[in-house]
Specification:
By secondary structure, the protein is an alpha/beta fold. The protein has helices at about 25-35, 55-65, 85-90, 130-140, 170-180, and strands at about 1-5, 45, 75, 105, 110-115, 145-150, 185-190, 195-200, 205, 215, 225, 235-240, 245-250. The strands form 3 sheets. It has a 6-stranded mixed sheet, covered by helices on one side. This is Calcineurin-like phosphoesterase family protein.
Length: about 270
C-alpha cells in the first residue's frame, strides 16, 4: 500500500508570500507532482496546519486545490487550524461521535488511524479523554491487526529546545495506550517543519518538513531562524504482511542536472 503524507500547508491569503514563498503555488505544484507520479496511491493524508489562521477563505481555497488531486484524501487539523471552519468547508470529512476530526481507514490487512490533537487557541497539542477513548476502541476493533497512526503534533521530545515544549501534551497517555495494545507499527506527524525519524515506546515514527519553511536545526538553543528549504512530501510504502514500512521524502520542486549512471554523460542542460 502506498500512502502520501503532506503536512504544514499553511495556506493564507491569495497572493501572499511567506518567507519568500507563495504557498498556494507550492500546494498546486505538490498536487500536480502527486498526480503525475503517485496516482496509484491509496490515500493522501494531510497532517495538519492546513491553513495559517483557520480563515474560512483559506479552507475554500484548499477545497478548490484538492478538487484537482486525483488521489483520495484525508484532512487532519493542526494548531493553526480552526475545527469549526474546517468542518464547515468540508462537511463530508469523517468525525468521531464527539465531533473531533478522527477516523479510521480499514483494509483487509491493517488499519490507518487519524487523530485530532488540536487544542483550540494553543500551539501545543492535546488528546483528551474522549479522543483517547475513541482511539482505544479502534485499536480493540483492530484485534491485533497492524495499525498506523497519523497526527499533527509529535508525541515525543525531538531534542529541539524551541519546538519540544510545543509538542503533544502528556504524550505518555497516548504512548501507554499504544504500548498496551502492541499493534501500532508507525506514527506519522508534522508540526516541526523538519524531516526526523526515530522510535518512541518501541514504535517507529517519522516527521515531514512539509510545504512551509524549515526551522533551523538548533539542538543546543532555542532558535527563531527559518530556512526556506525546498518543500517536501512523503511517499510511504506499507507491507504489513512482511512488517515493512519505508518512508521516502520527495523534494518535488528541486531540479538537478541528470547524468547517465553508466557513461557519466550529462543528459540535461
Amino acid at each position: 500500500m502506498k500512502i502520501i503524507q503532506v503536512t504544514d500547508v499553511h495556506l493564507g491569503r491569495q497572493g501572499e508570500r511567506r518567507y519568500g514563498a507563495d504557498l498556494h503555488q507550492r500546494l498546486a505544484s505538490c498536487i500536480a507532482h502527486i498526480n503525475a507520479h503517485h496516482a496509484d496511491a491509496t490515500l493522501c493524508v494531510f497532517t495538519g496546519d492546513l491553513t495559517e489562521t483557520g480563515a474560512p477563505e483559506s479552507y475554500a481555497d484548499l477545497r478548490a486545490a484538492l478538487s484537482t488531486l486525483s488521489v483520495p484524501w484525508r484532512l487532519l487539523p493542526g494548531n493553526h487550524d480552526r475545527r469549526a471552519n474546517l468542518v464547515a468547508a468540508f462537511p463530508e470529512i469523517p468525525l468521531d461521535e464527539n465531533g473531533f476530526v478522527q477516523s479510521a481507514h480499514q483494509t483487509a490487512d491493517e488499519v490507518l488511524l487519524f487523530l485530532d490533537c488540536l487544542a483550540e487557541g494553543r500551539v501545543e497539542g492535546e488528546l483528551c479523554d474522549r479522543r483517547l477513548a475513541w482511539l482505544e476502541a479502534r485499536l480493540e476493533e483492530a484485534a491485533g491487526r497492524p495499525a498506523y497512526v497519523f497526527m499533527h503534533h509529535p508525541p515525543v521530545a525531538l531534542g529541539l529546545p524551541q519546538l519540544d515544549p510545543l509538542a503533544l501534551e502528556q504524550p505518555e497517555r497516548l504512548l501507554g495506550l499504544l504500548r498496551r495494545h502492541g499493534n501500532v507499527r508507525h506514527i506519522f506527524f508534522g508540526h516541526v517543519h523538519r524531516d526526523i525519524a526515530g522510535t518512541v515506546a518501541g514504535i517507529a515514527f517519522s516527521a515531514q518538513r512539509g510545504l512551509h519553511a524549515r526551522f533551523e536545526l538548533a539542538l543546543d538553543r532555542s532558535s527563531e531562524i527559518v530556512e526556506q528549504a525546498p518543500p517536501s512530501y512523503a511517499v510511504v510504502l506499507i507491507d504489513s504482511a512482511n512488517e515493512h514500512v519505508v518512508v521516502h521524502g520527495c523534494d518535488f520542486l528541486e531540479r538537478w542536472p541528470i547524468y547517465s549512471g553508466e557513461t557519466g554523460e550529462r543528459l540535461t542542460a
